[in-house]
Amino acid sequence: MNNTRSIKLSALIAFITFNMIVINQVTAQNTTSSPALDAKELELINRQPISPAARANENVLGTEKRPTSFEYQENKGTKITEYSSDGRPVEIQVDSRVGTHYEMSKPINQSPTVPNTSIQRVPSIQLPF
Fold first, then answer.
1. What is the dihedral of CA 117, 120, 123, 127, to 10 degrees?
2. 110 or 91: whose pLDDT is higher?
3. Pairwise CA distance, residues 19 & 25, whole Å
4. Could you tell me if residue 8 is inside a domain?
5. Would the pTM count as exceeding 0.85?
6. Which end of the chain is more exposed for a tag (fewer CB within 10 A), N or C?
7. How many domains does the chain have?
């Protein structure tokens, strides 16, 4: 009976020793094959764009050029341009010599509106606490 105990004990010690050797070799391989990244490598990874920059090709139409119906330019540099085309509201652009830019056009909805009188208004009161 002592003999079987010693055989089991020696088999257990051999198994544990073998596992310790295998675990040490695996951890040694993992640390040498994948070292941690340094700050420069992390910075390079983080600075990469998420996706490549998009570019328009010849099949993509740009902004539609409207024909000018009136154009005036003063000697001091102010330029007035009016655009009118069928079915679209008239737009006027004013550019000055100092860099200001104005766009004037009619509102989209020209229909008259009826004021909503069914809403009863209640005054608001502030009560300091």
1. -150
2. 91
3. 10
4. yes
5. no
6. C
7. 2
